[in-house]
Here is the input.
Amino acid sequence: MTRYYTTLLMFMLVALTSLSANAYDFEVDGIFYRILSAQDRTCEVVYDNSDVNEAREGDIVIPQNVEFRGSEITVTRIGSGAFRDCYNVSSISLPATVTIIESDAFENCSKIVSMNLPENVNYIGSGAFEGCSNLTSINIPNSVSKIQKRTFSGCKKLEIVNLPSNVTTIDDYAFANCMAFTKFELPVNLIRIGEGAFNGCTSICQLSIPSSVNYINKEAFYNCTSLEFVEFEKSNKSLKICSDNGMTIGYKAYYVFDPNGNLKTLKTDRTLIYFPAKFNSLINLELGDDVSVAEFTCGDNLEHIIFGQNTEFQSRTSSDIGMTTDFRKYSNLKSIKCYESSPTFYPNCTQEQYLNVHAYVPNSSLEIYKSSSFWKNFWYLEGFDSASGIETNYSETAKTPIQFLDINGIVHKAPIKGLNIIKYSDGSTHKIYY
Here is the structure.
């Protein structure tokens, strides 16, 4: 009896070894399958070899059940690289029984235009649709919680992806070089955006970062050359925008947004931590209430700045907008709007800026600002009457000073220290003291 069981065990081991040594266990209609569970009667579609995949063409339909040794086996998984490099396949239909799509499953299926994933799919592996260059639309089932690395990288024509609210992570380079996106709605429960997640998405014009996001890794939106508007939604939690180790990287800048891109408006209603970025194209900077911004530098094109209540800047260099509040480098600056009830920072500007920049403060605090250092130097220091929020009309333009005179009527090229008589292009004349 002992010899019988020993012989049987050896036979089973040999059979198991034989099965594992093969890439597949059986083939039906040119599709290769491997048994996942003999007890549950389940199997997966698997990769055989590149010659087979490259020879496939037309439409492929994966059945819900296939027959193996007289039994029906249910297809529940698309294995790693199962349809990799099927360059001439036009479509692939998956059965409702599929729950897992492994890594690189449909990589480089360059003729597929759309995919309808079964609602039972709860996992999509890394690079699953990478290089599907003609894919224009795909649905992501509600049970998927993470978009893995490179999942849709290189899907150049992908226009529509509706991510379910369950998605909490968009991993590294998940949508890199998806050039057809014009707008991308991030899931409301998203927490993490990985490195280069949307790198090279050259058609995205605007972006809203949900309040749930607490980490954005380096170069997440790099090379998004059409991106003009970014808004960080209100949250009482700080948002870490940085490199892998959560800190700024010395002298090497790992930018989240492309500093040489076309970003025009940045609006944030939450604190941003470790933000090593310079925005050369930025025109409008809008900071909400209780916002603290670190490591932030704007380019010369900045025209309008809005400060909410309790705004705080943490600066490490004098060229940043920060503790020094030095606006002199922003030669195109046209307006500053501040919601603080009393001055908490003091804008250091050039004489030309004090003459031409419109400074807006709450009506109830106008007199306080008029007697405050630096603020009192603005000729266009005006009050506004509105509830706390970001509402500025950017169409306001300043009158142009055309002549500067001292108290003796002598003309000067620029304002001088002391009392100045300034004549403006609209015919008005004002006295201002420097």
